[in-house]
Write a structure and sequence with these properties.
5 helices, globular, Maltoporin, Chain A, 5-stranded mixed sheet
């Protein structure tokens, strides 16, 4: 391509991309692409990418060029993730347009894509955005802390993905591809030192054990000193980071037609949980408890300082979380045109996470999550092609056991001041979830350039629940509930110390346990057409129906009806888009317009229950919708300069009269309101310029700008729950060898120390917010032995 054309391209597109940045990342490494099912002989390299412009992804569970996938997908290489400091799933907000991360008031991650997400404080809530590592599910977002360790590539699939990636993917799916064992001996390390004594170290070794067996082992440790400080106490700080992860991959190819990959991985998190910032005093029970009113009613809101927070003096806020997982994938090549694949996985997750979420030093609310999740999954599928037809058919089974006790401490009033003395409680719940499904995905080449696609999955799920609100072993809650229960029904049995205190809605008799079942089934489907008039252009259109299963959640259920489940939600999605490569790959451009018809959106709402005040409950919103557009670009106007940019516009709203209680217990009509934590505008961008300094050293300088418009953390559009829009700037510069064997990089993130919040919630008697990380900076040294 002529230099003049490149500068013309820069003039036409550079200003727009910098003003409305977004992201369309090219993947990094090596290997072949295949638009047919993965061949066993290529199994070790099937998830890697080819030359620039030929990103190879597995968004449809087979290897194919990104430009040939008729779906909205953002892909980024492991090298690009490392350069930009993307070290956790939450960081994907900086590279994936339309993706938002929110931390719940108890610290549980919440992922949303294009407005489709579910905020809940329950560690065992099935998310609307599902996460996989090498197509092995991590069915609960709390399990994903170690997903981004030693990654070759990450793919973000947008819109309902339930046909191939299973139920609950109404928002989308995140697929991490782990770096694979290599044919030759390779090793390397990454060492980072940064602000707050951050010290991150990762090392791997990879290579052959025999002619047929290869292995890769990686270990990573992250450490950081406290970064938060107390608003009311000098020399009291919080926020230590202490995280370790390890993975062993064994890749065995006993024959040219047979391959097995064993993945054994684990992580341990002993970090401290984040404390919140005080926004305002708002009583859960108006006029009910004098102590919090006296302590908090005149307190001023916290300053806009990202490091500022407050928590109970002497509170121990170190978590003790871990996860262990083992999976086995087998691929058997049957003839020359079909592959039988089996993926078996078992995951064991444990969380013990204390949280002080009221944003004050007053002991208003302190909660510890004590949860255990065990998940087994089995998928068996056959993929191949018959002439003009490409197909994938299979079955899937998943068996999950979720046990959770949320141990809460709430200071209500002075001892002996009345029947509403309320000190400790347990939200106890156990769930057993069995899911069976059968699925198929088909493509038919109508002509050499026009292809029809269809996919379908039938899912049947049985979910059994038992739980209750229980006294916290001190007798205070039991005494209060006994008083209330006998006011309504003198025949109500007395709750024992440590026993269940949940009351029947009608009789007000105390229940020893609440047992419920939820049995649902659904049929997800997708139909589409894609037209490729040339190898550099594709136009596509899809109509997709996706479902998220119903669920229970452990909450302080004074009445049994609070523990009733939400039923399954569904999204009917219409999307039309394009993917193009212009000017000899100097410009890669993709875009899409979409409309989602949303039924029975699941929501953690508020129920007013006198005299206990405003208590949480799961509810459905009958009708709502999402409409929007998205544009992503990768621009290389000159040889050593690259700009990735992308922008997403999302207009979400509740359709029709829907009366719900807002966080203050006031009933409001949600008609026309946008979804919580769903900004209308999001942009991401990253640019880098490489500078040859000598035959043995290259220099580089780069940076990124990401941002989003304002939104509300909860329905109701109250100003106290407003999450203001923001833009964050990162910079980097460094030196590296031309062959990529070493790199030394100096970096800064959020360099202007911009204050922003990721969540605002109403916890008992306070409204509190969770702040994003302030400015950080450091240096990273990477080395690869090849």
């Amino acid at each position: 391509m002529m230099m003049g054309n490149r500068f013309t391209l820069l003039a036409l597109l550079g200003g727009t991309a910098l003003a409305s940045p977004a992201f369309a990342e090219q993947a990094a490494d090596s290997a072949q692409a295949a638009s047919t099912p993965v061949k066993v002989s290529d199994a070790a390299n099937a998830d890697s990418a080819g030359a620039y412009g030929d990103i190879v992804v597995t968004a449809q569970k087979r290897s194919e060029r990104l430009r040939d996938v008729p779906l909205s997908v953002t892909a980024a290489s492991g090298d690009q993730l490392a350069v930009q400091g993307i070290s956790a799933p939450a960081d994907l907000e900086r590279i994936v347009p339309g993706f938002t991360f929110q931390k719940s008031s108890y610290g549980i991650p919440v992922f949303t894509i294009r407005g489709i997400g579910l905020y809940d404080t329950f560690v065992g809530m099935s998310p609307t955005v599902t996460v996989y590592v090498d197509q092995v599910p991590l069915p609960y977002l709390a399990m994903t802390a170690g997903a981004s360790v030693d990654i070759e590539r990450v793919e973000a699939l947008k819109g309902p993905q339930g046909t191939l990636f299973g139920q609950n993917s109404t928002g989308g799916a995140i697929n991490y591809i782990a770096a694979k064992p290599t044919e030759d001996l390779k090793a390397g390390f990454d060492l980072t030192y940064g602000r707050f004594n951050q010290l991150d170290a990762q090392a791997f070794i990879s290579g052959p054990i025999s002619d047929t067996l290869r292995a890769r082992f990686v270990v990573r440790h992250e450490y950081r000193d406290d970064w938060q400080y107390s608003e009311t106490r000098l020399n009291d700080s919080l926020g230590k980071r202490d995280f370790t992860a390890a993975r062993l991959l064994l890749d065995w190819t006993p024959s040219e037609t047979l391959n097995f990959v064993l993945n054994a991985n684990a992580w341990w998190d002993k970090s401290e949980t984040q404390a919140a910032q005080f926004v305002e005093f708002s009583e859960t029970v108006p006029g009910g408890y004098p102590e919090p009113r006296l302590a908090l009613q005149n307190r001023v809101p916290a300053r806009d300082d990202p490091r500022l927070a407050d928590w109970d003096p002497g509170a121990a806020l170190q978590r003790d979380d871990w996860m262990r997982q083992i999976s086995l994938r087998g691929d058997w090549e049957i003839g020359s045109s079909a592959t039988l694949t089996s993926i078996t996985a078992y995951s064991d997750f444990k969380s013990l996470a204390p949280t002080d979420a009221d944003g004050t030093d007053f002991n208003n609310f302190y909660l510890t999550i004590d949860a255990r999740i065990k998940s087994f999954s089995q998928e068996l599928r056959l993929a191949g092609d018959i002439g003009r037809i490409k197909y994938t058919v299979g079955v899937n089974y998943q068996d999950d056991k979720v046990d959770d006790v949320d141990r809460g401490h709430y200071t209500g009033t002075s001892a002996g001041a009345g029947p509403f003395r309320w000190n400790t409680f347990n939200n106890a719940a156990s769930q057993r979830i069995k899911t069976k499904s059968i699925f198929g995905n088909f493509e038919y080449a109508l002509t050499d350039t026009l292809t029809a696609q269809g996919a379908i999955r039938y899912t049947d799920q049985d979910r059994d629940f038992d739980g209750c609100l229980a006294d916290g072993d001190d007798g205070d809650l039991a005494a209060g509930i006994n008083f209330i229960g006998q006011l309504f029904n003198p025949a109500s049995s007395l709750a024992p110390i440590g026993g269940c205190v949940t009351l029947d809605d009608v009789t007000r008799l105390r229940l020893d346990i609440v047992e419920q079942s939820l049995n649902e089934n659904n049929t997800s489907w997708r139909a589409g057409l894609n037209w490729k008039p040339s190898s550099d252009l594709m136009l596509y259109g899809n109509v997709t129906r996706g479902y998220k299963s119903g669920s229970f959640t452990p909450i302080p259920a004074v009445l049994a009806s609070q523990l009733e489940p939400v039923t399954q939600e569904s999204v009917l999605a219409y999307e039309a888009g394009f993917k193009s490569s212009l000017f000899n790959n100097a410009l890669q451009l993709s875009g899409a317009a979409f409309y989602y018809d949303y039924e029975d959106k699941q929501l953690l709402g508020i129920r007013v229950i006198p005299p206990f005040g405003n208590l949480p409950v799961l509810v459905n919103v009958p009708k709502s919708s999402v409409r929007g557009v998205e544009l992503e670009a990768t621009i290389r106007p000159i040889e050593r300069f690259r700009l990735n940019a992308g922008v997403t516009y999302v207009d979400s709203r509740v359709d029709g009269t829907t009366i719900r209680a807002n966080p203050y217990g006031q009933f409001v009509d949600l008609d026309g309101q946008g979804f919580p934590s769903t900004p209308k505008w999001q942009f991401v961008s990253d640019a880098q310029y490489d500078i040859p300094l000598s035959n043995s050293i290259n220099g580089f300088i780069g940076g990124s700008v990401t941002g989003r418009s304002g939104t509300y953390a909860l329905f109701g559009e109250n100003p106290n729950f407003r999450i203001k829009g923001y833009a964050l700037v990162d910079l980097r510069a460094g030196l590296e060898s031309p062959d990529g064997s070493w790199r030394l990089q100096v970096w800064g993130r959020n360099i202007f120390d911009k204050f922003y919040s990721v969540n605002v919630s109403h916890i008992t008697d306070t409204v509190a917010r969770t702040a994003g990380m302030g400015a950080t900076y450091g240096v990273t040294l990477s080395y690869r032995y090849k």
